[in-house]
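Q: Hi! First time doing this. I have a protein sequence and I read that you can turn it into a structure. Is that right? Here it is:
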Amino acid sequence: AAALDAASRRLWVCYYDTSGDSKRGRAWYSCTSSRDGRGWTKPVRAARDSASTDVLWEDARVYSYGDTIGFGGTTAVAAADGTVHPFWIDTRDLEGKKQEIFGATLP
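A: Yes, that's right. Below is the predicted 3D structure, encoded as structure tokens:
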């Protein structure tokens, strides 16, 4: 997901990132920003807890979110006046077969 903050002139991009898990079984929804599209800030994890990559891939396959090369599901980011609000699905309640949409505020 991507959003442009017109006030700060920063392009924000948020995505599921498996950095930190050598087996790539866990992903954290993370965000980075750029003023020119070439240099990017160090990614910041918007999600404290990780999500299962198997569940995220299954969402893409079963629910056909139009994401044939990556994780599916509901993701978004809004940015304005120097504040960023990413949104992502959470997969912690798998026994209840529920997925919730989480959000955060990043400075």
